[in-house]
Amino acid sequence: MSATAPTSRSARSGPVEPVGPPDGSAATAAAAAVEVRGVSRRFASRSGDVVALSDVDLTVRAGEFVSLIGPSGCGKSTLLRLIADLDRPTGGELTVFGRPPHVARQNHDFGIAFQQAGLLPWRSVRANVELPLELHGTGRAARRARAAELLGLVGLADFADHRPDQLSGGMQQRVAIARALAESPSLLLMDEPFGALDEMTREHVQTELLRLRAESGAAVVFVTHSIPEAVYLSDRVVVMSARPGRVREIVPVALGSAGDRTEELREDDQFFDRVRAVREALHGTDPADGTARGVDQR
Amino acid sequence: MRAAGRWREVLAPVLLGVVALLAWQATVIGLELRPFVVPSPTAIGEQLVDHAAVIAAASWSTARNAFWGLVIGVAVALLAAAVSAAVRVVDEMTAPLVAAAAVVPIVALAPVLYTMFGANAQTARVVVAAIVSFVPVYVNTLRGLRTVTPVHRDLMRVYAATRRQATRVVTLPGALPFFFSGLRVAASVAVISALVAEYFGGPVDGLGKAITSAVSSSNYPLAWAYVVGAVVIGLVFFCATLALERGVLHRGNLRQRP
Questions:
Q1: Which of A41, B205, B209, B238 is deepest in the core (most CB within 10 A)?
Q2: With an 8 Å Cβ cutoff, are A110 and B158 in contact?
């Protein structure tokens, strides 16, 4: 019984129902995309230690889209960097698909996109998308085919031979996302990837990301400082607070699967409802006017 | 439209040059200036035609010294920059030396070097040109090798790229433009220092020597004609490095294409 349970679970890995608490059995540890247990990160500075993260717990299930949101200094980017093994925690434990982050990184288990597109300016758009495949020894023909496919997915097939600096910020960011998806990772880590884009472009690429995510079935950890963005994209929104950085509340969104979400959702009452929920979680319960607002809205 | 722009780009400076030459000629004739003050462009042109072979030989001699100096200086600079980038201690140890080489006018060492390498050998001139061109190439290339943006460094780490891969994919291409801006400076100073080194002694060939001897025999238009030779070498060196830069950076683009 206990031997069969893990296999049956891994067999139905893929998009999981968006909401609901992670069931506490030991078997899910293997299926979870990201498991964060009591993680802390303090930075030594001249004026004493700065606690960027304090005792953070978080589970991101396979195929789940989770946003990290909070004021600057709440450690949301630090948490993402810990998951990506770009930094090490000073306390606690992290696993990515049941493995330590550095092993997951060596295994190319995740793709990543940053606020800066970070494309190599001396390479064509195509060669930028091919980069991870090239580094990991994929053959030339397979690389080209995959790059063509990905550029088609992000709607930039006509720009394969352009240089990155010939593209707008939004297009560059789409190339960066295509690059992150190159090896079909089961986990995508995104650090404010749309932070530098204007509102119009931003909404467009958000919808595109939903579509890409529905097609790939990858889990996503998405750092943002935009409430509507977090609600529009996520299955759950992790609201963090600063000094020290910790998880204040996890808001379930439950607005349907990624594939079902369309631009109309932005006008939906349920959407506004979730935005309000996240905003309240974010601003906390200030005893003076927080309760008054809470009463007003109910 | 584009062709017209190109023409204007070329034509405008040429036109300005012609106007300047005409004004020069008119001033010399109008004010009856003596040749030791400034000779007329036509007088310089005459000398240039009459002594074309001698001027070409002198230019060739100086150009050769500048060229070998540049080649040696650049080669050593690249090697040194690679070592300094890889081993920080080396960089820290050599930093004062490089700073010294940058501030000491190396040509001032020419008399000493002539004694060191023999007054009838070109070696001292090549050495001067080499040391002078070493500095900008070394400094720029090292800075280029150090300038890896954090996002690219993170990316290489996430992709678990080996050090060699990261060097090939990110560090070297990123350093190339830095190297070339160093090279452009080096090419100009190599010519200048090779020529100026001739003023301080050594064999009797070369433009610097020719200019001093033409002046000492009061043949001012000829001295100016040699200066024209120096201008031509300087331009050739500059254009050659520019062409190399364009060629390499462009090929870099093409390499990624089908």
A1: A41
A2: yes
Domain annotation covers residue A139: no
Q: Could you give the ipTM of this predicted complex?
A: 0.77
Question: What pLDDT, on a 0 to 100 scale, did the predictor assign at position A142?
Answer: 86
| Residues from chain A contacting residue B158 (CB–CB below 8 Å) | 84-86, 105, 110, 112
Q: Which residue segment(s) compose the domain that A83 sits in? A: 29-62+70-109+226-284
- Among positive and negative, which fits the CA dihedral A154, A157, A158, A164? positive
CB contact under 8 A, B173 and A122: yes
Measured distance CA(A202)–CA(A213) in Å, rounded: 16
Give domain limits for chain B.
54-250
Q: How many CB atoms lie within 10 A of CB A288?
A: 6
Q: How many domains does chain A have?
A: 1
CA distances from A17 to A9, A142, A169 (A): 13, 34, 34
- Does residue A140 lie within any of the structural domains? no
Reported CATH class of domain B54-250: mainly alpha
- Which are the contacts of B152, defined by CB distance < 8 A and separation ≥ 6? A118, A120, B170, B174
Residue B253 near chain A (CB below 8 Å): yes
A128 three-class SS: helix
Considering the entire predicted model, what is its pTM? 0.74
What b/e sequence results for A125-141 when a residue is b if at least 16 CB atoms lie within 10 Å of its CB, and e otherwise?
bbbbbbbbbbbeebeee
Is the pLDDT at B85 greater than 90? The verdict is no
Q: Answer whether A120 sits within 8 Å of B253, measured CB to CB.
A: no
| CATH number of the CATH domain containing A273 | 3.40.50
Predicted confidence (pLDDT) at residue A9 exceeds the cutoff of 60: no
The answer to whether A132 contacts B159, with C-beta atoms less than 8 Å apart, is yes
Select from A151, A152, A210 the least CA-distant residue to A176.
A151
Integer Cα distance of B250 and B245 in angstroms: 8
User: Do A190 and A197 form a contact (C-beta atoms < 8 A)?
Assistant: no
Specify if A265 maps to a domain.
yes
Q: Give B148-207 pLDDT, tens digit per residue.
A: 888 898 999 889 888 888 888 898 888 999 999 999 999 999 999 999 888 887 788 888
* Residue A40 domain-assigned (yes or no): yes
d(CA A134, CA A118): 17
